[in-house]
TrEMBL record:
Pfam families: APH
Domain (Aminoglycoside phosphotransferase) ranges: 23-261
Organism: Candidatus Blautia faecavium
Protein name: Aminoglycoside phosphotransferase family protein
Length: 367
């Protein structure tokens, strides 16, 4: 197959081995342009991933790559110390011929490359409960391996990403502006947020008081960012590190629960179908704590359920703000989709608030 000249030109700038045979679009990502490259090495072939970063989303691509380089180098060292397989348990950056973790072409576009992890797959949806458990182990292990990484040396590539008080102020501004004249129709949802203003400060206050440590956080802890071994069905590697930043471990945990332990779709219209599945929640708690291998503090463990509530609340608040502002941030495919999204999140928040004693008891069981 003839290789696109632009891709071929970019590929030539990286330290790949062999002769380029093929380049095909790869994966289901909506942000970066991703290609799987196949090279011949004598009688064998070897595959790599080549990506063009979306500068509209990642406005500081050099900082993104500096974060990824630091974190993957650290994980590689830890995996080596544990006697693991550094070719499959680490996201391995292929440097450019200039020795950088990226290449900038003549149009100012940023490219990067990774070794392809053979014999493993990622999944967009939970096919088996074990998959959700394995994702928990993997993200817990990610925390464990990076527990002593100096998180404050990382760039904050998306400012105030999980600064919930700041998100609340932005929400208040959206309500006040009422740019699309929608506030009158969503009074109940607006009041739901306003009633929980004290909730927005809980984790940030604990961090400021030194009771929750700053950690390396992934910030997109979904199942499809885990590579699962095809033969053993065990999670082997965390990928998609574009949003790695300093943050709170409980937020990474919470976002996984928000997305993975809900009984319905994120934009489900029938709210009777929405609740937090405590069985799935328990599976994730068990796997996450096992994966962390004792890296979390007592306060972090205690705040895991609050992380689930707060991340769900924050996301719902952002959906509602975007609806009030005209649906300009989150992509929508139908009218009212962001409003439906916000309502599912608020139903989850209410359900988790009611189940908080059980959620705390489950953490106690495994810590």
């Amino acid at each position: 197959m003839a290789v696109n000249e632009r891709i071929k030109s970019a590929a030539e700038k990286f330290c790949f081995s062999g002769t380029l045979l093929d380049a095909v679009p790869f994966g289901n990502g909506h942000i970066n342009d991703t290609y799987r490259l196949t090279f011949s090495e004598g009688e064998k072939t070897k595959q790599y991933i080549l990506q063009r970063l979306n500068k509209n989303i990642f406005k500081q691509p050099i900082e993104v790559m500096e974060n990824i380089s630091g974190v993957t180098s650290w994980i590689r060292k830890k995996v080596q110390e544990k006697g693991g397989d550094v070719e499959r348990e680490v996201l391995n950056i292929i440097p450019s011929h200039e020795g950088k973790p990226y290449y900038v072409d003549s149009d100012g576009e940023f490219w990067r490359a990774y070794a392809f992890i053979e014999g493993a797959s990622s999944f967009d949806a939970v096919e088996k409960e074990e998959d959700f458990y394995q994702s928990a182990v993997a993200f817990g292990r990610f925390q464990g391996l990076l527990a002593d990484y100096p998180a404050d040396t990382l760039h904050e590539t998306i400012k105030d990403f999980h600064n919930t008080p700041e998100r609340f102020r932005a929400f208040q501004a959206a309500v006040k502006a009422d740019a699309c004249g929608r506030a009158e129709q969503v009074k109940k949802e607006i009041q739901f947020v306003l009633d929980r203003e004290p909730l927005t400060h809980v984790l940030c206050d604990l961090q400021e008081e030194g009771k929750l440590p700053l950690r390396v956080t992934h910030n997109d802890t979904k199942l499809n960012n885990i590579m699962i071994d095809n033969a053993t069905r065990k999670a082997i590697c965390v990928i998609d590190l574009d949003t790695v930043m300093p943050g709170l471990s409980v937020n990474d945990f919470g976002d996984s629960i928000r997305f993975g332990a809900s009984t319905g779709a994120e934009d489900e219209k029938d709210l009777d179908k929405i609740s937090c599945d405590l069985h799935l929640y328990e599976l994730y708690v068990k796997g996450y704590i096992e994966g962390c291998e004792g890296a979390l503090t007592e306060m972090e463990l205690e705040m895991l359920p609050m992380g689930a509530i707060l991340m769900t609340f924050e996301c719902g608040m952002r959906f509602l703000a975007d609806y009030l502002e005209g649906d300009h941030y989150f992509k929508t495919h139908r009218e009212g989709q962001n409003l439906d999204r916000c309502r599912t999140q608020f139903k989850l928040v209410k359900d988790m608030e009611e189940k908080l004693p059980q959620m705390k008891a489950i953490v106690e069981k495994y810590k």
